[in-house]
Amino acid sequence: MKPKLKTIFPIATFLLLIAAIALWNLIRPVKVFSENENRLLAQFPSFTAETVRDGSFTEGYEEYLADQFPVRDSWISLKTRTELLSGRREINNVFIGKGNWLIDKYDGTLSQERIDGNLKLLGDFTTYAAQTLGQDHVRVLLVPTASAVLTDKLPPFAHDFDQQALLDEAASLCPEGTVLNLLPSLQEKQSEYLYYRTDHHWTTLGAYYGYSAWAESIGLTPWSRDSFTEDTVTESFYGTTYSKINLPVTPDSIVRFTPKEDVSYHMTINLGEKESDSLYAPEYLEKKDKYSYFLGGNNPIVEITSSAGEPGRKLLIVKDSYSHCFAPFAANHFEMTTLLDLRYFNMGVRQYMEENGITDVLVLYSTANFADDRYLSTLSR
């Protein structure tokens, strides 16, 4: 090949590739939502003189190309297989653990400035709540992620952010005894099915252990495990961690704990937008997002009443999605259990407590979601 052609050939190949991608996106409808990744996909950015000047168009276009890339899921799978062949056991912030257990990695993705700010907001809120409701009615449950608990499944030399340090700092800023540290007890049970192998959430069994520790800490008698039947509702769950790498692995099972005694529930979502006499949404078992079987997924506000609950006692759970398989246990002790997702909830949390006669508060997040949450300022209102 002549020198000039050697220069032109790679440039022409690159331009043809870009043109092919552009043509593909013109022919194929732009996807809005990825069911596999359970998230909204980037759309074509606004093209104006201002967006070109400030660089937001270029940034947005790069995200658009990445999200709308032809047969994107297949490329992710190919990339994963290639990196595995090279010996890597950490791909796209996922540890490939023993037995192909997929464990999310968060170190390097979290901002210490945001962590410090969130801890300050948490300390101020729990101090306010304890002064208002009494210290025995306020708890914080920052649930360790699988990377801190399933240490026997991590690949050699793997490390993640220091979750024990986060829990210690939370305990120092909140009223004494209000922060529960589940890390030691969950580590002791790490041989049990506490976390999904393909998803970042804890399982219903993990949530049961968390519920038991929380209930005992506030003077409630937790329902024994024998009080429930354990029903497997699906054995084909592939979660969000799996979607990051598309590596063929054994799917997860989702288990529901059903009280053996006759208990009736009523769930109201978003102040009447939807109502149900069940805490579960079986239609999600036919979809990719099977974890939304619990409480119907993410919503700004969910209210649950239970015939087994103590009259006049109202629990507020300020939460992320780790609470979705936890709430069916907690609801058995309260007349009303309300879950607030601060990503979508506009009213101040303190205002909501005052206007709705809240008697108990639980802040429940995974450590990683708490550390990275951008909406905790709602706790100050």
Any overview of this molecule?
By secondary structure, this protein is of the alpha/beta class. It has one domain (100-380). Helix content is 35%, strand content 20%. It has helices at 3-27, 49-53, 56-67, 72-85, 112-133, 146-149, 163-173, 183-188, 204-217, 240-243, 327-330, 349-355, 367-372, and strands at 33-34, 39-40, 90-91, 94-96, 102-104, 138-143, 179-180, 228-237, 252-259, 265-269, 274-276, 301-306, 310-319, 334-340, 360-366. An eight-stranded mixed β-sheet has the order 7-6-15-13-14-12-10-11. Helix 5 (112-133) packs parallel to helix 7 (163-173). The model has no long low-confidence stretch (mean pLDDT 89).
Primary descriptors:
8-stranded mixed beta sheet, 381 residues, globular, 15 strands
Instruction: Sketch the topology as an H/E string, one letter per element.
Output: HEEHHHEEEHEHHEHHEHEEEEEHEHEH
Gyration radius from CA atoms, angstroms: 23 Å
Q: How large is the share of residues in beta strands?
A: 15-25%
Strand order of the largest sheet: 7-6-15-13-14-12-10-11
Terminal CA distance reads 70 Å
- Total number of beta strands: 15
What structural category characterises the helix and strand content?
alpha/beta
Fraction of residues in helix: 25-40%
List unreliable stretches of 5+ residues: none
Mean pLDDT: 89
Number of domains in the coordinates?
1
Name the shape in a single word.
globular
Largest sheet: 8 strands, mixed
Q: Count the helices. How many?
A: 13
Summarize the structure.
The chain is α/β, with parallel strands linked by helices and 381 residues long. It contains 13 helices and 15 strands. It has helices spanning 3-27, 49-53, 56-67, 72-85, 112-133, 146-149, 163-173, 183-188, 204-217, 240-243, 327-330, 349-355, 367-372, and strands at residues 33-34, 39-40, 90-91, 94-96, 102-104, 138-143, 179-180, 228-237, 252-259, 265-269, 274-276, 301-306, 310-319, 334-340, 360-366.
